[in-house]
Amino acid sequence: MIPMLTYARFLGLFVCVPLALTFAFFPRVLAGGRWLAMLVLLTIVYATTTLWDNAAVAMGFWEFDMQRTWGIKIWYLPLEEYLFFGLQSLLVGAWVLRRLERVR
């Protein structure tokens, strides 16, 4: 029997594992003040995405199956959606920083 793919499992498999591997293989990716750039990125991501994603769900553009989440909602979104914003941004940001490091 295949276990139900919950939002948390999706985050774990497709975002957290690659992020953990990135930091394991490239631990210096946030060294030397680069973490400040990531903090700015996360601030922008949360400030913009929180607003439009909540508005989209409130207007019925899409919805979340709460049986596939932890059941914790902040406004209209499950907690996992907020985690996705940040973790996905960290993953892409770390990848970009690593690529920039290689081309310098």
Could you please describe the fold and organization of this structure?
- 66% of the residues lie in helices and 4% in strands.
- With 104 residues, the protein is mostly helical.
- The chain has a domain at 30-99.
- α2 packs antiparallel against α3 (79-103).
Poorly predicted regions: none
**Radius of gyration, Cα only, in angstroms?**
16 Å
- Count of DSSP-assigned helices: 3
Strand content: under 5%
Shape: globular
In whole angstroms, how far apart are the ends?
49 Å
Average pLDDT score: 90
* Main structural class: mainly alpha
Features:
single chain; 104 residues; mainly alpha; two-stranded antiparallel sheet; 2 strands
Topology:
Elements: H1 7-25, H2 34-58, E1 73-74, E2 77-78, H3 79-103
Antiparallel strand pairs: 1-2
Helix pairs in contact: 1-3, 2-3
Describe what is shown at a glance.
This protein has 104 residues and is mainly α. The chain has helices spanning 7-25, 34-58, 79-103, and strands at residues 73-74, 77-78. The N and C termini lie far apart (49 Å).
